[in-house]
Design brief:
about 80 residues, alpha/beta, 4 strands, 2 helices
Length: about 80
Amino acid sequence: MKRVVILGVSGSIGQQTVKVIEDNPQLFCLVGASVNSRLSFLESLIKKHPSLKAVCVGKKEDEEKFQVPIVCSGEEG
């Protein structure tokens, strides 16, 4: 199984990649994702993919909204 991290998961290519992962759960596992401001999209993704262990958001103050093992923010994240 391939573990996948998607940068820009809420964009069109990111969403298409999520669909490929969801259509092929025996091949792929989503373990990391980043979004800038579409936090509600990331929240729904975390609920659908318990394998998601690391996320990066655009603003530091948004880090506390997510309950995953690794949460970071900004360009450094």
